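Continuing from yesterday's entry. The apo prediction looked reasonable, so today I'm repeating it with thiamine diphosphate included to see how the binding region is handled. Same sequence as before; SMILES copied from the compound registry.
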Amino acid sequence: MGVARIAGHLLVEALIEQGIATCFGVPGESYLAVLDGFHAHRERIRFVACRHEGGAAFMAEAQGKLTGRPGICFVTRGPGASNAAVGLHTAFQDSTPMILFIGQVAGDQRDREAFQEVDYRQMFGPGSLGMAKRVEEVTDPHRLPEYVSRAFHTALQGRPGPVVVVLPEDMLTVPTSAPVLPRVEPAQSWPTPTALARAAEMLAVAQRPFVIVGGSGWTAESCLALEHFVEQWHLPVGCAFRFQDTFDNCHPNYAGDVGIGINPALAERIRNADLILAIGPRLGEMTTGGYALLDAPRPQQKLIHIHAGAEELGRVYAADLLIQASMACAAPALHSLAAPAVIPWTVETEQARADYATNLVPTPVEPLDMAEVVLTIQRLAPDDTIYTNGAGNFSGWLHRFLSYRGLRHHGRTQLAPTSGAMGYGVPAAVAAALLHPERTVVNLAGDGDFLMTGQELATATGHGAGSLISIVVDNGTYGTIRMHQEREYPGRVSGSDLFNPDFVALAAAYGWKAERVATTDEFEPAFARALANGAPTLLHLTLDPDVITSRTTLTAIRNSSTHP
Ligand SMILES: Cc1ncc(C[n+]2csc(CCOP(=O)(O)OP(=O)(O)O)c2C)c(N)n1
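Holo prediction written out below.
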């Protein structure tokens, strides 16, 4: 037993032992003892105070995505926890390791509905459709290291996800000499030799196989092994919805993203495949085209599904082969499979790549061409730039026209919510900029998306963010909803129009540089200036709301609606 200190300090020591150097949160009187621990250990760990718990939780979620270790968020009870829920839900749907610490009422006030008291086990689950993998309340300060260790293990192992740890405020002030536990290295699971041999047999008799990769748990090494495997077998590869950086989009075997706004030629290719090899992704609604690219529960194609979480295997699809394995093990194991001398689908793989290239050619739009905007960003921004977005139709231009560099080159370069949570992109960008001051971060936001968490511009300024560019695509509407309205209830606009502030003035008030861009020609010099100035910069793009996606217009949707 070492020297006694209060449990709030012990918690901070335990986080440092886990390699955590940055935590995000909004302070609360319920966990002053932890805040004091951050002060005591300020040389080794920083607490980034945010402007809303939704922003803080999104930042921690982005930290989890970027580092592969749990992102850490601290919030206060009832109101703080309620605000943080959106980040927790995103971590759950995106399978991101994350730990949300919640200050709680003192133990001797429990169950009275004391000030801001909530039962977090009820609120956040856990459950298979829930918000958290595990919810625990620490009542014994001496066991705090055990709870922290369990939270890290749970967040990282199997299908990664968020864990909630509840901290009664009186527990945090009790002195304890409990030692911290060692850094958690998640247990990995290997495919069995039998399963691997079966996968090789199935591949060997296939004519038109297709690989879908994504999900959590990838490392640079496993992504490189994946690359070698698909090269050996000449396999075409698609990336699951918002896991576009799992496989290098510049690689000749890359065929495109399998998500919302999928290239129609790619959708056709997947439907016509005779074998789908899904390595890592959940086979969720967005990746399966609403369970139509792969019919649920029994797909037309043969299906091999490899996932780290047993609970995801067979959850929707009755596959032909299920392999429970971590990506760090599955990828090298697949790489060890010897490919046949003659591979019948080589030409198909080349054609898949050609389809991808064709899909990168935009149809010109005046006066502001979003495809050209994204292609210009790609051309000017450094190769290791981190891109973030929230939810809205604007993100479709990024998904279609940006070629994300693979995780094997620069770690993750895409931070985007598979949960479809609006407001994710700004805080994710702030987190990325603070965690990687040496890299450029570009956020693409809709006007609706941006203002859900736009107050975190202050967090960026306050914590000295550098090369961080937020591009706001202002079409004066919640465009995605307007698009659905025009399809289902043509001409009946309801609740989707927006009044917007002057975004340039707003950004300037937060201490950001800012400019307005109304035409394609104005974009390149404005973006170049933003890159060169090395400071947080907002570019306010005005877009005709009729230009609703990269493939169609609101007018065309309204005119072709089958509804009266
Ligand atoms: C937090 C949250 N609230 C509501 C929605 C439903 N929703 C999806 S997209 C969208 C509109 C997005 O508008 P905007 O950011 O302006 O982008 P646009 O679609 O116009 O490009 C809404 C309201 C959501 N996905 N997330």
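Comparison notes:
- Residues 391-394, 420-423, 446-449, 475, 477-481 surround thiamine diphosphate (CB under 6 Å).
- The first strand starts at residue 5 and ends at 6.
Will overlay with the apo model tomorrow.
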